[in-house]
Design brief:
Blueprint: H1 2-16, E1 20-26, E2 36-44, H2 48-54, H3 61-65, E3 74-75, H4 84-96, E4 100-105, E5 108-113, E6 121-129, H5 139-149, E7 154-159, H6 165-170, E8 176-181, E9 186-191, E10 202-209, E11 212-218, H7 220-237, E12 250-252, E13 258-260, E14 265-266, H8 269-272, H9 290-297
Parallel strand pairs: 6-7, 7-8
Antiparallel strand pairs: 1-2, 2-6, 3-5, 4-5, 8-9, 10-11, 12-13, 13-14
Length: 318
């Protein structure tokens, strides 16, 4: 239920906004895997076209954070604060995606950025999906972590349930609330979110025991770094499921969601499909260009031309 709700909301937001949407991204800083946000939405800023022109993929975070700039090329081995093998892998991926360019000097490889990293992120919205508020699970703790950390500009709870005053009173006041119908794609704003302060330090619980909670104070620089990583991962990943079922009944909706003709509904291939399914009939997975669907329905560009340093105004550095 939650998977289908999540994909329906992602498709709806992609169709009705200019946001970049992705699913299931790490939303903590001190312990990145301890909090996974269901949907992450990036509102693009003026530099979005420059970012989209570089690559359709995620630019390796360490390549952005390294000492490699857009000016003089540098020896890649001196530009990273990690092992040589890890740095080599990062450089290879940055070159492959068009973020670094290479020049050779005396048989050694020097690299530079093809452009300065663009200011393309206006704001980040974190959306926690809880279709049934009668089964909240760990919702209260998750949302309180999000508000205390302030990694996102806004945090929103999306639900299919009728939202009562009692529900609202149990939620942190800063959390916005949407009621969303995945069948009709009707979205109602029950409560607007209160803007958070990602430019200020935040508090992240790192370990909780009876009568004790350990916390980390996360400074604004660390939050800025994580926000950029979230945005980059969102741009490269998107929200669609790449591994489609190898089944006769498998198909894809017009907006790119995995669909089962046997059960006549959107399905989660990881949990709903396979030989144990009563409708399973082995076949090749659906032949569909998910990248083309994403490009048609969002500002993301599947196959950009890359950056011409002359056009980007960086020829003065050569």
């Amino acid at each position: 239920m939650e998977f289908r709700f999540e994909l329906a909301l992602a498709a709806h937001l992609e169709a009705t906004t200019d946001w970049v949407i992705a699913r299931q991204l790490g939303a903590a800083v001190a312990d990145p895997g301890s909090r996974i946000m269901d949907l992450c939405a990036i509102r693009p800023d003026d530099g979005f076209d420059d970012r989209a022109a570089v690559t359709s993929r995620t630019i390796p975070p360490l390549a952005i954070e390294s000492d490699v700039g857009a000016g003089a090329a540098v020896d890649w081995r001196d530009a990273f604060d990690c092992s040589v093998d890890h740095a080599r892998s990062v450089v290879d991926r940055a070159v492959d995606c068009g973020w670094f360019e290479v020049e050779r000097r005396n048989g050694r490889r020097y690299v530079r950025q093809t452009m300065r990293y663009p200011d393309w992120i206006d704001s980040l919205v974190g959306i926690e999906n809880k279709p049934d508020l009668e089964k909240p699970g760990d919702l209260d703790r998750q949302l309180r972590i999000d508000i205390a950390l302030g990694l996102f500009d806004e945090v929103i709870l999306a639900t299919e349930s009728y939202v009562t005053r009692a529900h609202l009173n149990r939620l942190p006041e800063a959390v916005g609330v949407w009621r969303f119908d995945p069948d009709s794609s009707e979205r109602t704003v029950v409560r607007e979110p209160t803007p958070l302060s990602p430019d200020e330090p935040g508090v992240e619980p790192t370990e909780t025991e009876p009568l004790r909670t350990d916390i980390a104070i996360v400074d604004s620089d660390a939050k800025a770094c994580r926000r950029r990583r979230i945005a980059e991962r969102a741009y490269g990943k998107g929200w669609r499921v790449e591994d489609l079922p190898a089944c006769e009944h498998a198909a894809v909706t017009d907006d790119g969601r995995p669909y089962c003709a046997f059960f006549d509904r959107v399905v989660d291939p990881a949990t709903d499909c396979g030989t144990a399914c009563q409708g399973h009939e082995p076949n090749e997975p659906p032949s569909v260009d998910l990248a083309a669907i994403r490009e048609k329905r969002s500002p993301w560009i599947a196959d950009p031309e890359g950056i011409d340093r002359q056009q980007s105004g960086l020829s003065r550095f050569l």
